[in-house]
Specification:
With 221 residues, this protein is of the alpha/beta class. 55% of the residues lie in helices and 17% in strands. α5 links the parallel β4 and β5. Bound molecules: erythose-4-phosphate (E4P). Erythose-4-phosphate binds next to β6 and α7.
């Protein structure tokens, strides 16, 4: 399963890109609004793409099909490699249908049920983003929705790539990997948690200590 970073923060993206564990970036208007307001968003996104070289989703703000298509057109003028991120509303699916005819990659976002995922697939979405954490936040089982979506995909050989989004902790990533999601888009902190284990840190510290002991016993030779 691929990992993307869910962030618009360049230092976080650069830090994770340097580890080689991520192959894409998802942004959204909320993540972009957290960054320095003096930053030029277009430059930031182009810089992000130059850093990671893979998938970068850029979200539209319009809620009417015409507006979404106009925004997609503008985005693609300054960033031709963009995957256009479109909300899971009927007008959004009409935009996905049009963009898919032109072979423009789309990521349908704010999906909370297998039915919505199926609809987005049928409209021609390249990616469907299932927001499991926000379901957990309201007392529903987000992982179950990802599992059910993956079962439907396996049964019918559906084509959209399933992105597990709105990840809240490392167990979410593992549960989605077991379910068969293609990608988990994961916040920086959780990617760090995923790589870390206290026994690894203790092991590294004891190897260094033992190596130093051995070197001093040999008189530094
Ligand atoms: C995915 O593309 C979204 O940007 C993201 O995962 C939303 O997660 P949140 O529920 O933490 O805002």
């Amino acid at each position: 399963m691929e990992l993307y970073i869910d962030s618009a923060n360049l230092s976080e993206i650069q830090a994770m890109a340097s580890t080689g564990i991520i192959s894409g970036v998802t942004t959204n208007p909320t993540l972009l609004a957290k960054e320095d307001p003096t930053l030029d968003v277009k430059e930031l996104i182009k810089h992000i793409h130059a850093t990671i070289g893979g998938h970068v989703s850029v979200e539209v703000i319009s809620t009417d099909t015409k507006g979404m298509l106009k925004e997609a057109d503008e985005i693609l003028k300054w960033f031709p490699e963009a995957t256009i991120k479109i909300p899971m509303i009927p007008n959004g699916l009409s935009a996905v249908k049009e963009l898919s005819k032109q072979n423009i990659p789309t990521n349908v976002t704010l999906i909370f049920s297998p039915g919505q995922a199926l609809a987005a697939n049928n409209a021609g979405a390249t990616y469907v983003s299932v927001f499991l954490g926000r379901l957990d936040d309201i007392g529903q089982d987000g992982v179950a929705v990802v599992k059910e979506t993956c079962e439907i995909w396996d049964r019918h050989g559906l084509e959209s790539m399933i992105i597990a989004a709105s990840i809240r902790h490392p167990i979410h990533v593992l549960e989605c990997a077991k379910a068969g999601a293609d990608i988990a888009t994961t916040p920086y902190k959780i990617l760090q948690q995923l790589m870390k284990h206290p026994l690894t840190d203790a092991g590294v510290a004891s190897f260094i200590a033992d190596h130093e002991k051995m070197m001093s016993a040999k008189g530094g030779k």
